């Protein structure tokens, strides 16, 4: 399917937030050397700066102010140099923060409900960027700046607006308009609703400004929270999606797959993943990660159906760093060879998470449960998508409901229709119950007696789902109390002697379990529904209990059976995905493997102007795996299987709907292409 705006595969986001105290801006820029280094890095698109967080423009301007250390049109020179060698150049403008503007117009700054200025820092004695309110006259100024950039650079290949966030602002402009429009600023819910109204006001005006010269100008507004399920009303203001997710910058390696699982269901929108070349995160001059880390991160983006973007920061002198270009080139040379098997590929997963944020649309969404489900499926090698209330349920065989998603009447009707065609459900905790009352929402063979008041309690896993642990293991949050009238029990619940408090406690943490079971069950498995009485997905996200993971995956496998599209001998650090290129009549299975190592530690041993250290997930060695077995259950008969981009045909067996093969060796990333 053709997208609204098709992205290139090998982009760099070139930060250039540069202090006005630094002279000689752009003095090292040399067109030929710039072009040579872009080629070394195999870059085909690079985002360059019009206006940075410090508030300075990198070209002549009548609306803003050109950086005082710059004496020529740097952005024009960058665009011309790139276009000569067919490299695209979207241009960047800061939106949510601008220190120059904040210092000139402090009345335009965002003020939190406690009366403090919002931003990186609250104190004027601390270094950091300052947030501005989109409901103040700042928005008019910003739109004039955007319109000017659109006139000056009509040949730009897009506009990227950054820090698109509107908090619960109580500045004079917001207080005035909340009162005039019937919002109560003393209520958090009203402040959140007004912030949403202001965000949409910003999106409308800034997008119109960006397209004031070229109505087809690609536009992206950067804030990962806007790309979560439940935000389809914002999509008309986007031409494509960019998923900022730097694994070493605090996001971790499991953040991007959850975002991508939703974005790839938005079929009109091409999207890319954005990592960084830094050892830590943005603004780390002289920081480098191992080339193998970038190789893996780019492969992981391709595996999730995304194009690639790597974040870098340009030195004030204005020349691309040679070491960085070699580092990026090591990853992008591989991406370039893999593009044909990743272009216009759609997910072939048959399992989907129903996002509670996408159905309930809370003003303050909590993704803990969905994070737990995502990690569980990633480690269990079960490909999945993530749906909001506009998603097509009929494309899937199994739907998973997070604990907070208590279905309303409309969702219950949709789920009943889904199950009527043979679909299966997995749910946990309060997802058992109707939204409007505490009655079970599903036809399950059980009696519901409310929520336990004794916890942490314990599960003794039913023998068919147990592995090495056969005694009760701890569950840290309360469970629903259920007694079964049919189906297969997942195990028995044991209560503690008492809850821990100042009157009675035992040992360092929680109270041990009583010798006799409570009479309640840990969950139930029927032909079409798997239900866990505890909020197991939240628990797995928070605690990462290996015994719980094994228990959950055994029960999920029991429900899915032949609906598992992939089974593999990869270890839990391995990742798989399954995509389909219908025009080419082929499935593309992505297999990835890398060990992450936690390096560094939390510490504040240095002066205030150095960011405190913290542990960082590092990928260094890419250790090979040998003799990795795969089983596929696919709806189409497979004619041949190749390993790409090597072009090697490999043997396989196909019988009773199962395709089986062995991958002799896996290093980092392998595409297994199944031609039908």
Largest sheet: 8 strands, parallel
What oligomeric state is this? single chain
Helix content: 10-25%
* Average of the residue pLDDT scores: 96
Principal-axis shape: globular
- Mind telling me the C-alpha Rg? 27 Å
Class of secondary structure makeup = alpha/beta
Q: Could you tell me the number of beta strands?
A: 32
Low-confidence stretches: none
Residue fraction in strands: 15-25%
Question: What strand order characterises the main sheet?
Answer: 5-4-3-2-1-8-7-6
How far apart the termini lie comes to 19 Å
The total count of helices amounts to 14
Question: Could you explain how this protein is built, in words?
Answer:
This protein has 14 helices and 32 strands. By secondary structure, it is of the alpha/beta class. It has an eight-stranded parallel β-sheet with strand order 5-4-3-2-1-8-7-6. Helix 1 crosses helix 2, helix 4 packs parallel to helix 6 and helix 8 runs parallel beside helix 9. The model has no long low-confidence stretch (mean pLDDT 96).
Briefly summarize what is shown:
By secondary structure, this protein is α/β, with parallel strands linked by helices.
List keywords for this structure.
eight-stranded parallel sheet; 32 strands; seven-stranded mixed sheet; 14 helices; about 675 residues; globular; single chain; alpha/beta
